[in-house]
Amino acid sequence: MRYPLLVSKDAGSSYGGILPDFPGCYPMGETLDELLDNVQDAVETWMLGEDPEIFPQPSRLEDVQRLEEADGKVLLLVEVNPDFLDSTPQRINITVPRYALGLIDKAAKASGSTRSAYLVNSALERVQPRG
User: Fold this and answer.
1) Would you list the DSSP string of 3-71?
2) What does the buried/exposed string (b/e) look like for 42-53 if buried means 16 or more CB atoms within 10 Å of the residue's CB?
3) What kind and span of H or E run contains 74?
4) Which of these, 89, 15, 7, 3, lies nearest to 47 by C-alpha position?
5) How far apart are CA 49 and CA 97, in angstroms?
6) pTM of the entire structure?
7) How confident is the model at residue 59 (pLDDT cuts 50, 70, 90)?
8) Domains of the chain
């Protein structure tokens, strides 16, 4: 989905972005390319702990141009991929040493989880920032 991004840069500063559809979401970057690269991560961080149902629809460019905060800023369209919100189970095939699988199964049982839930939760603990 393409979202409007308001971009500004003052002398001696980084590029700053405002995503009007995500209040309080302000990606930044030393270069314009870096700013654009940081948009997806900024939106994913903004959505942490939020209900996926609140993921906003993009505003019309004409509406964003009329915003007071748009004055003096460049208006761009940026791609934001909402797939990170998709919780549909996905079957995967992995290879695990037999001894490791035994340890994983034992730990999963002790935690009251299935093997799949235990593997997913363990992996997510390593990749998600702790709050």
Assistant:
1) EEEEEE--TTS-EEEE-TTSTT---EESSHHHHHHHHHHHHHHHHTTS-GGGPPPPPPHHHHHTSGGGT
2) bbeebbeeeeee
3) strand 74-79
4) 3
5) 34
6) 0.71
7) very high
8) 2-85 (3.30.160.250), 89-131 (1.10.1220)
